[in-house]
Each structure stands twice: as C-alpha cells, then as structure tokens.
Amino acid sequence: MLEIKNLHASVEGNQILKGIDITIKPGEIHAIMGLNGSGKSTLANVISGSDKYDVTKGEIQYNDSNLLDLSPEERALQGIFMSFQYPAVITGVNNTYFLKAALNAKRKYQGKIELDAIDFMTLIKENLKKLEMDESYLRRSVNAGFSGGEKKRNEILQMITLEPKLAILDETDSGLDIDALKIIAKGVNDYRNADRSFLVITHYQRLLNYIQPDVIHVMIDGKIVKTGGKGLALTLEEKGYRWLGEKVS
Amino acid sequence: MSVTKSNFNAFLQTHNSESETIRELRKNAFDEFLLVGYPTKRNENWRYANLTTLSKIEYQFPNGETSKINRETINSHSIDNSFRIVFINGIFDAELSLLDSISERIIIKNITDNFNDLNQSSAKNETNPFILLNKAFVAGGYCIVIDSNYIKDKPLHILNIISDEEDDIQHHHYNLIKIGKNSQISIIEENVNTNQKESFKNTVYNIQVDEDSTLSHILVQKNHTKSKDINHIFVEQQDNSTYKTQLINIGGELVRNDINVQINGENCSADISGLGLLTGKDHIENYTVVSHNKPNSNSHQLFKYILNESSEGVFNGLVTVQPNAQKTDSQQTNKNILLSKKALMNSNPQLEIYADDVKCSHGSATGELDEDAIFYLRSRGIDLMTAKSLLIEGFAKEVIDKIKIDSVKEKLNIELIKWLAK
Q: What ranges do the domains of chain B cover?
C-alpha cells in the first residue's frame, strides 16, 4: 500500500529526514516512536503533502501512484488521512458544512452520488455517538474554542466519516486523559479492517496498549534505527531511547 | 473644476419653482464650495483617495427622465416579507414600490417635496466640499419618519437605483431617517448602479434615533469600476437608544463612507460594522467617528475588508470619549485579508479619551489567508480554490451574521460567493 524509500526531507534548509524506509501493507498498523524532534511529524506531513517541507531525495509509492507528484487534496481523495497533532482553528467555517464538503468531494471523486443534507446528518449523528461527542459540535466553527481533547476527537470523527485507506495519527494521544484516549482508541479499533492501514505516531507506549500495532519503528534524528514487533514498545518503556541512541552514535 | 458657475446657474434654472430661501441656501453652499474646492492628498483625511477624475470631469445632472427600469430588475432584488420602496435616480417610484397595508405612522416622502423637513442648515462653518456640493445641488433622496411607539412589523426595503443613460452624471441625494420615541424599525437599503456609466453620487444621511428606540440600518452599496460614491452618514442618538448598522460595500472606483455617530444620550448602544469586497482597482474608504458625549453607553465597531488584485482599502476609525462620558464601553476592530501581493490596506484606529472610568479597546490586523488552515482543508480532499473560498466566507461571516433577517443574510452570502467566483 505505502512504500517509502530512502526519504530525505528538509525544512528551511535544515535536513530533518535522513533516509527513511518503511513499507506498510494493507490492513497493517505501524507505529513510529521517538523523542520530540526526531522527525516523526515531518514524516506525517510529508506523506500528507504539506508544502512546508522539501523532499530532497527518495520516493513514496502509494498503491499505483507516485505520491509526491500529487497535491494534498488528491492524496486525500485517494484515501490518505492525517489526524493533525495541532489541528487548525478555522473561525467562521461551520463543522457540518466543512465535513459535508469534504465527504462530498470524496464521493464525487469516487463517482458516487453526493449526500444531501438529510443523509449527511444521519451519518454524522451516528458517528458523533460513536465518539461520545455532543451534537452542539455541528453548529460550532472548525476547532474554534475546542479543548485539546475535543480537537483530537474531531480529527477521529473526520477519519471515521471520510473512511480513508491509510490513516496517519500524529500524536493523537498527546494531551488526552485516559477516558478520551479509550474512546479514540475504540474509534480506531472498530474501524480496522483487512484493507485499511494505520501509521500511528507517538512518543508514549501508552496509546499502544489500546491500539495494538503489527510493526513498531523507532525514529532517532531523522532515521529509523530499529524496527520490531509489539514487544519493542515495552522494551522502550523500560529502557528509554538512550540505548538505541548510543547504538546509532 | 467639475462644477462651474454656469453649471450651477443652469441647475437653478431647472429648479426655479423653489423658494427664495432654498435658492439662497444653495447659492451660499455653492459659493463656499468654490472657496474650498475638492480636497487634495495634502489633506490628512483625503490622503489615500484619488480625486483627479472626479475633479476633472464636468458632470451633468440627470435630465429628470429616468430610464425605464423593468419589473424584473426590481424583482431580482426583492426581499420577502418587507415593504419595498423604490427610488430611481433619487426620485420615489410609486409604481415599482410595494407599500400595501403599510402603517400610517410611517411617512415616506421625496426629500424634494419636503425641504422643510430637511432642516437645511446654512453652509456657514461647513468646510467639507462634498457636503457643500450636496447642499448646493441636492435634488433627490428620501425622508422616512417613524412615529413614536411604533414597533416594526415588516422591515423597510429601500432600493436606490442609479440608472444613467449617459456618462458623467452627478447625483446629490439627501436621506433623512427619523425614529420617534420608543419605536423599532429595520431598514435594508440597497444602492444599485444599473448602467456601467461614469458617474458621481454624493449622498448625505441624517439619521435621528430618539429615546428608547432601535434602528437597524443595513446599507448595501454595489458599485462598478467607473462609479464614485461618496456618503456622509450623520447619526444622533438619544437616551436608551440602539443604532445598528452594517455597511456592505462591493466594488467601486472610489467609495468613501464617513460615518459620524454622536451618542448624545445615556445607556445607548451603537453597533457599527462593515464588510468591503474589493478587486481590480477598487478603492473603498470607511472613516468613522463615534463620539461618546454622555455616560453609560457602549459602541462596537467591526470593519472587515477582503482585498484582491490591485485594490486599496482604507479604514480610519476614531472614538472620542468626552470628559463626562464615564462608564463608556467601546471596542473598535479592523481586520483585513489581502488576497494579492498588489492589494493594499491602510488602517488607522484611534482613540481619544477624556474620561477616566472607561473601557476602551481597539485593534487592527491585516494578513494573508492562513496557510495552515488551507493545508488542513486540502488534506481533507477540498481543492485549493474551494478551501480559499471557505476561509474567505468564514472571515466575512462575522459581519454578515450580525444581520438578523435570514433572507437578507442569505442574499449577502450569495453576493459574496458570486464575488468570489469572479
């Protein structure tokens, strides 16, 4: 599904990613762990198509597409979704309106009939319930005045509504209390299937108690220094990152 | 000089039925205008406006024969559940208006039939050239008087249509709105310029809101690339009165609104907001003066501009709090979005406070569309153009949402989307 080869990326001339290789197969959950500043979020943003980063070397193959040739909206329409670490606040743009526009853009792309207001409301109310979100959400502006937890729930709401093929969760757990974390994890787990893949970025092992990954990568200074099974998370929890850091240096 | 002595004499000839007093007032005003002349960029209050064309063209007066406006044009502007009052080139058109079952306590007249109500003060001490020109040449406009204890049933929808058959026509209108004690009314006024002719419109508004009254005045001004539209809006508020206005300006070669609100009563509220949509070489200026002359009142100002291509906007806002106007609560905000590197915004919010127990704030921000927000929307599959439109609509919403009449709000949203699609 996704094949990242020797990816190098920089921001304002600073090299952040220094040769990343990751292959994600359909249905797999991959986790990337690492300390702040190791380049995890950069990787997520490069996959999503943010133009703040320059890809200086390497490639990303996504199904049949050369991902780096696609605009952010084309990537989204082809099934890529990122749950933002810091979701944008968009005052004056109503959540319902925004989500309906996004969903219908996708349906149109897929050659499906666009949903009318009534069908859309039925769908969105179901999804709100799954995430234990209040319906007043629908009348508010996108992320305006939202608490940290509300913003993260909103990301997951968008994810389950837009039904991506590859969902990247960028630090979705940070700033969440344990109850919110469980709800979000449930949203993700209910949503797993054989065709849908996840890339979960976190620097705590905690989230991985609830969302069990197939593969864990450890990123340090723009490189994957170790790849392993779920046991790796526990080792990291116990020993920290230093033993790996020492190993690389 | 665009207006000459012979020009003025010809005007007097065509208005020879007027009383000697009125003629005298006109003459005085014109003489004063000749002394003052058009403002130049050296004048601090006119430093951004380009008045070259305006002062060079020898503008003529509408010949009285208004061109036929068909019913479809009017209907395209209709607002459900409102009284419609149509003025063509400043003259009331009963046929196109819809005033069935309107209360007898609302008086609607041509200002020209009613020069006494005009309360035309002498031109003495007046130095503003546009007001002087208006005093000299006023030949159209409305007079709306609302009796006391009148509670609105339907809003008044005023359609001011300028329809010039030829280039270089000038229109000087005077509009009077007088709200009696303990009354409430909503007025939606639309100024439309139907023909794309070189034109100059110069309007003075005299708005009086008496004790315990509420006036909501929505003013929508649509202009084209050759129209110059100058407005002076004078508002006077008495005790416990509320004045709400939204000025929506769409385009115009030169649009200038001077809004002067005198809060002469206690416990008053003034809510003044504006939205400017500019593209091409549009130039729109809003100069506001809000003067708190009595204690315990509040005023809120919010002006937003969206500027594309080589357009230029000006916001100059002054709030003054007089020494006895304690407990004044005043806010003034100007926010602008530049959609092009060539667009320019001049923002100058000012406060003059002579009282010590007041709450006053002002702020101004001009920037481009938020890149992070654009990326966020695109990452959800929304294309770049739509993402930008969504953000612009969201930006404008704060002003449009102040309008409480849904059909008007809807119409303005459509205008905005049409403007964005241009």
A: 5-376, 377-422
